Amino acid sequence: MDIGMVGLGRMGGNMSERLRRGGHRVVSYDRDPDTRQAAAASGCEVVDSLEGFVEALEAPRVVWVMVPSGNPTEATVAALGDVLESGDLVVDGGNSNYNDSMRRGESLRRKGIEMVDAGVSGGIWGLAEGYCLMVGGSEQAVALVEPVFRTLAPTPEKGYAHVGPLGAGHFVKMVHNGIEYGLMQAYAEGFELMRAKQSLDLDVAQIAEIWRHGSVVRSWLLDLTAAALEEDDSLSGIVPWVDDSGEGRWTVEESIELAVPLPVISMALQARFRSRDETQFGFRLLAAMRNQFGGHAVRRQS
User: Fold this and answer.
1) Residues classed as catalytic
2) pLDDT per residue over 62-74, tens digit each?
3) What's the rounded Cα separation, in Å, for the pair 39 and 45?
4) CB of 89 within 8 A of CB of 64?
5) What values do phi and psi take at 112, rounded to 5?
6) What would the pLDDT profile of 25-63 be if each residue is shown by its tens digit?
């Protein structure tokens, strides 16, 4: 089937390529003219405006939005609502807040345009491995674009599911990313502990590799950890600053709203915040308190 793709960043570009390899006609657009030019030079079919989709795609049109969450997605969906026609469909494949997806979908629906929210996991490896797709929307809307989902998934039968109404796709992806925070933090702490045990002279790259085969903690994240440690087991060239995309925060906020305790995910998010504090005032205060009540030694800066 034909599909329009808005956003030709690394992930959007890879998804477009996977769809083309799967036999779909993909018409692409990116706000950056240099990106459009590069895509056209590589053989992609490119339009130079969102209005171009109306001319390039047959109705009912399906346009996949793959731009950063927040204002870029807000502006793009609103602009598509102005140029598309009743019966067309917009897929938001970015990391949007599910509440925003529900609101945007309702706004489009008043114009007769359907919306589907697709939580997408797979990152830069998706072109070769396929993407895990968590999809929300009406039965009719999801059925219209299902051939695309089955092409993007790891196999036509696995890695894709219609998980609920509009908003459900991004809600499930939000929880997915919250779990990811906890898993990553557990690996990071475990490997830090092993590096700290200097008397045993442990080879953490070797340990990551053996854990990949047969252990209870094997996972794709461990595969990626092993690859990183194989390149540099001290990670000396990496600044200890860990960003968060926002979905971990939304997961914790949702847990507060629903009174569902998420101690591991919450602490993993807090650890990311801590990684960005070069002054570490809180740790200095902890040391000062221990000195005040127990006379414990305090290390002073020279």
Assistant:
1) 173, 180
2) 999 999 999 999 9
3) 8
4) no
5) 85, 10
6) 999 999 999 999 999 998 899 999 999 999 999 999 999
